[in-house]
Write a structure and sequence with these properties.
The structure is a homodimer.
Chain A (H helix, E strand, L loop, with lengths): L2 H10 L4 E2 H11 L8 H13 L3 E9 L2 E8 L1 H30 L19
Antiparallel strand pairs in A: 1-3, 2-3
Helix pairs in contact in A: 1-2
The structure holds a DNA duplex.
Protein name (chains A, B): Transcription regulator PadR N-terminal domain-containing protein
Pfam families (chains A, B): PadR
InterPro entries (chains A, B): Metal_resp_DNA-bind_regulator, Tscrpt_reg_PadR_N, WH-like_DNA-bd_sf, WH_DNA-bd_sf
DNA sequence: CGTTATATATCGGAAGCCGAGATATCATGG
DNA sequence: CCATGATATCTCGGCTTCCGATATATAACG
C-alpha cells in the first residue's frame, strides 16, 4: 500500500468524506506533514475503489457544488488496520535501531578501524 | 521518503551493511512483511547516497566475493528518526480513527437510521 | 471583473518499483 | 564434471504511481 492510499483510508476511518474534504483532513491529521496532492487523490480513489477498500457512499449538492462522499468497506478497515500495524512495527524497529547505533557505534566487533557512525554522532 | 528508502535506512541504523545483507536484514526486521527487491535496492542506494543520507563505508572481499558496505550519515540518522516519528504518528492516528469509526458508526449526527460503516450497507 | 475558496476531473512528464537477466565465486550433490 | 543454489554485484525495460498544470463550475469578497 502506498503512502497516499494509507492516508486516504485514514481520513475515511472515522466517517465518510468527499475528495476535497479528504485533502484537508489528511493535512490536518498529519499536522501538515503530509500534503496529498489533487492530482494524486483521484487516482488513489479509483484504485482503492477497484480494490474494494472504499465505496461511493453518497452524493450531495452543497451550495451548488457537488460533493461525492466515500467510505471504508470492511475490507478497507481491515487493510488500514493491518497497514497501521506494519507501520507502527516499522517505526518501532527504526527507533530501537537508532538507539542501538548511538549506544554502540563500534559494537560491530571491530575495535576502532571503524570510525563508527558519523564520528560519534554528537 | 519512500517505503524502500525507509527500510534501507532502518537496516543500516545499527551497523554498516552491504547490499545483500540489507536485503536479508529488511526481511528479518520486518518479520517477512517487507521484501525489498534486488531491482529496487541499487536505485535506492544511489538515491540515498546522492541525498547524503548514507555513504560507502568500506569494501571487503569475503570468500572471493566483494562486499560493499554502506552506513548512515548524521543526516541519514536524523532523516530516519524524523520519518519514524511521522510513521508512528500516522499509525497512531489511523488506529484511533478506526476505533472512533467502530465506536460510533452513526456518530455523524444520525441517531440510528444510519447503518454506518459496514452496518447495513447492503 | 478578478481573485480566492470550494469541488470535481484529466493529462503527461517524472520518479520509483520490480521481474528478469548478466556476471562471478564457492559449496553441495549427482 | 556439471547442475544447482546461495552469495554478491549491477543493469535494463515495463509498469505503476506521483504530482504540477490545466480545465470546468459555483459562490463570496473586494
Amino acid at each position: 500500500m502506498t503512502q497516499a492510499a494509507f492516508f486516504v483510508l485514514t481520513a475515511l476511518a472515522d466517517q465518510p468524506r468527499h475528495g476535497y474534504g479528504i485533502l484537508r483532513e489528511v493535512e490536518e491529521v498529519s499536522d501538515g506533514a503530509v500534503q496529498l496532492r489533487v492530482g494524486t487523490l483521484y487516482g488513489v480513489l479509483d484504485r482503492l475503489t477497484a480494490d474494494g477498500l472504499i465505496v461511493l457512499d453518497r452524493e450531495e449538492v452543497h451550495e451548488g457544488r457537488l460533493r461525492r462522499y466515500y467510505r471504508l468497506t470492511d475490507e478497507g478497515m481491515r487493510a488500514l488496520d493491518a497497514e497501521a500495524e506494519r507501520m507502527a512495527a516499522g517505526a518501532s524497529a527504526a527507533k530501537s535501531r537508532i538507539a542501538e547505533g548511538r549506544k554502540a557505534p563500534g559494537a560491530v566487533a571491530k575495535p576502532s578501524a571503524g570510525p563508527g557512525l558519523a564520528g560519534g554522532v554528537a
